[in-house]
Amino acid sequence: AVVVMLTRVFLVGRMQKLGRRQKTLNQDIASTIAEPIFGVSIVKLLGVEESFIVRLRQTLRKLTRNSIRMKAFSETPTNFVEFLIIG
Question: For residues 5 and 77, is the Cβ–Cβ distance under 8 A?
Fold first, then answer.
């Protein structure tokens, strides 16, 4: 029980940081998508479709990496306890 509590205490701060990062990345994606929708004629006029796609892909990659980290950290206590019980 002590090991589980220590593991959770260690992970809480990390999970909060990842959660804030997730929120920021979701906001970045929303604004990245909204810009060309509201200014589609300007985007086409300036020929910046390619840079929009590159920027969106970069943000989506960051969001994916962050999501994987969040999942790994949230599963760590359970996996650790199972390891202790089985091992």
Answer: no
The CA-atom distances, in angstroms, between 59 and each of 5, 29, 42, 70, 82 are: 34, 7, 22, 16, 35
Sign of CA dihedral 16, 18, 21, 26: negative
pTM value is: 0.59
Q: How far is CA 81 from CA 16, 67, 70, 78, in A?
A: 22, 22, 18, 5
Complete DSSP assignment for 6-51: HHHHHHHHHHHHHHHHHHHHHHHHHHHHHHHHHTHHHHHHHT-HHH
What's residue 87's pLDDT?
62
75/78 Cα distance (integer angstroms):
6
**How many Cα neighbours within 13 Å face the side chain of 25?**
18
